[in-house]
Amino acid sequence: MTLLAGALAVLAALLFAIASVAQRGAAADVPDEEARGGRLIVRLVRSPRWWAGTIGDTGGFVVQAAALGVGALLLVQPLLVTTVLFALPLEARLTGRRIGRPEIRWAVVLVAALALFVVIGEPTAGVDQAPLDGWLPSLATLLVLLAVCVLAAGRKRGPRRAALLAVATGLAYGLVAALTKSVVDLLGDGPLALITSWETWVLIAAVLGGTLLQQTAFGAGPLAASLPAVTVGEPIVAAVLGVVVLGEQVRADGLEWGLIGLLVVLMIVATAALSRSSAAALPEPETVGAPT
Question: Per its UniProt entry, which superkingdom is the organism in (predicted)?
Answer without folding.
Answer: Bacteria
